[in-house]
Amino acid sequence: MRKELDKEYEASLKSIETENYVDRIFYRPIGFRIAKMLRNTPVTPNMVTIISIFFGVAAGPLFYYNNIVYVICGIVCLVIANILDCVDGQLARLTGIKSKIGRILDGLAGDLWFLSIYVFLAMRLNNEFSTWMFFIPASLAAISHIIQANITDYYKTLHLYFLNKEKGYEFQRLSEVRKQHKEMKPGIEKALFFFYVGYTSLQEALTPKQQLFFKKSDEHYGEMIPDNIGNIITSKSRIVMKKYLDYLTFNGRSIILFLSVLTGYVWIYFALEIIILNIVLIISIYKYERIFAWFFQPGEIGTLPDDPLK
After folding, report:
1. Nearest Cα to Cα of residue 29 among 90, 115, 101, 95
2. Residues 248, 149: contact at Cβ < 8 Å?
3. What distances in angstroms separate CA 109 from CA 91, 166, 262, one per listed residue?
4. Residue 23 DSSP label
């Protein structure tokens, strides 16, 4: 019975490899229990995502007040939002109810939570120091966050793509996304998917060596990249994820966010986003670019014996 439960729990995750420590011991187990309760109800993953947006956005106005009760309520709202963010994906995998709009909503949810937080933290600092200038770092932090979350999601999905095609089904290249958008009928779904086109465009713009790898790979292998190449990529990707990417996730930034609002030094969080996490992002991109450069620039890293991509 225990083994079956563990198997079902693992099936509710994209991959245990891409989950960080806090998710594995806290958010995902709770999300799994809630997803199991909702599995045979009319509640859909998209409904859960929308509810998570309300909780996450509510944290912003609660962080505006320099009041411990409101701040704790804001922290609780954000924790609930992240639990629900786990629930929607786990429920989708347990029920088989998956959609492109669900993936877009899921990514948009986190951006909306933090957009609310940045606005109200800037308003709080404006109120404390009587200057609107804090909206500048708030805007920079928001832009930084969107890019960091985008690239983190990209690399984790890419890791799954090479690890297990079934788990990595969400990984798509820009050409595929544009084609799907073009074929869609006008409406809300197509309008939302337009943002996904922009989302994917940014990912590919920031990963040029990886895109060159795919281009050369298409020429030599078509869609069937050999397992030995996939194994090398995932083994190296695993190291970068644990060393760097985990700091760019919700758990990496939320600890500093909670400490900054609890202590009243909310400007520290903006500094973290703009300086520290952007440095981590740059290092992560550099490390991943080196992984893909391995296969076609032997002078830079070295190459595999008889590598056809060199």
Report:
1. 90
2. yes
3. 16, 24, 24
4. I
Type of residue at 163:
L
Query: What's residue 172's pLDDT?
Result: 86
CB atoms within 10 A of CB 190: 14
DSSP state of 132: G
Measure the CA–CA gap between 178 and 75, rounded to whole angstroms. 38
- Which CATH architecture does the domain made up of 2-293 adopt? Up-down Bundle (1.20)
CB atoms within 10 A of CB 239: 11
Q: Where are the domains of the chain?
A: 2-293
Give the model confidence (pLDDT) of 204-259 as tens digits.
Answer: 999 999 998 888 888 877 777 788 888 889 999 999 999 999 999 999 999 999 99
* Average pLDDT value for the chain: 87
Number of residues assigned to the chain: 310
pTM above 0.85, yes or no: yes
DSSP 31-49: HHHHHHHHTTSS--HHHHH
What is the signed CA dihedral for 59, 60, 62, 66, rounded to 10 degrees? 130
d(CA 40, CA 49): 17
Tokens describing residue 268: 């520290």
Instruction: Give the integer Cα–Cα distance in Å for 63 and 50.
Output: 21
For the record, the structure tokens of 75 come out as: 């922290």
